[in-house]
Specification:
This protein is α/β, with parallel strands linked by helices. It has a single domain, classed as P-loop containing nucleotide triphosphate hydrolases (Rossmann fold). It has 9 helices and 9 strands. Strands 2-7-1-8-9 form a 5-stranded parallel β-sheet, sandwiched between helices. The protein has a 4-stranded mixed β-sheet with strand order 4-3-6-5. α7 packs across α8. The longest helix has 21 residues. The chain binds guanosine-5'-monophosphate.
Length: 233
């Protein structure tokens, strides 16, 4: 049986990497897609582990050869998911997690409508700013980049309505638990077997994260971004 494709998107600074790393530990049988990118490796990143780091010419050649399932420009660099990576994982029957931006998510949903998409939100604009500044101290990122990331985040968040599930990363443990519930609930649904009591609890937890159910929370987060953007004009 073919596996499930999970798309996870989040503005920079929402804690997506920590959450997906934890997800790896708590849910067995998940594979993580390794994208191609033209950006340089950061810190201890290694090609073939976090990304395949390639020059722009190679990326262009892959586009020309139609090797990408989706690709996009993010912060001035190119990122893409190779078709072979996804088809091989699905043929093995594995569930695959793709950490891609909102443009890539839209392209992928158009090609694989049954893919499950999750959008991770920071609790507020202020909190995102605090997290980006904290990271800034350790990574030596300049202020202009933080301002750009905040602006970018507010644009990305406007795309929340295209996602199946919305998760607010307010409390790390809760967010991990919710992400786990979403993955397990989708597996339970597709297996279509009789549901145990534990299954019911997982289905309920995932249900609480659906777009419809998350709307009131998302609305207040969106407002925190809109108010700041309006008053800074
Ligand atoms: P970073 O450079 O910080 O690792 O990632 C920057 C952004 O690129 C993140 O939003 C991440 O989700 C996105 N990204 C990573 N890989 C891909 C990909 O293959 N396709 C698309 N569309 N976005 C990606």
């Amino acid at each position: 049986m073919s596996g499930i494709v999970f798309i996870i998107s989040a503005p920079s600074g929402s804690g997506k990497s920590s959450l997906t790393n934890e997800l790896r530990k708590v849910v067995p049988g998940l594979e993580f897609s390794i994208s191609y990118t033209t950006r340089d490796p950061r810190g201890s990143e290694q090609t073939g582990r976090e990304y395949f780091f390639i020059p722009r010419e190679k990326f262009d050649a892959m586009i020309a050869a139609d090797e990408f399932l989706e690709h996009a420009e993010v912060f001035g660099k190119y990122y893409g998911t190779a078709k072979h990576f996804v088809s091989e994982a699905l043929a093995r029957g594995s569930d695959l997690v793709l950490d891609i931006d909102v443009q890539g998510a839209a392209q992928l949903k158009a090609k694989i409508p049954e893919a499950v998409s999750v959008f991770i939100l920071p609790p507020s604009r202020n909190e995102l700013e605090t997290r980006l500044k904290r990271r800034n101290l350790s990574d030596n990122v300049d202020k202009a980049i933080i301002a750009r990331r905040l602006k970018e985040a507010s644009k990305e968040i406007e795309n929340f309505s295209h996602y199946d599930y919305i998760l607010v990363n307010d409390n790390f443990e809760t967010a991990v638990e919710q992400l786990r519930a979403i993955v397990l609930a989708e597996r339970i649904r597709r297996e279509g077997a009789q549901h145990t009591g534990e299954d019911q609890a997982i289905l309920r937890a995932a249900e609480g994260c659906t777009r419809e159910r998350s709307l009131p929370r998302v609305q207040s987060i969106l407002d925190s971004f809109r108010q700041t953007t309006d008053s800074s004009r």
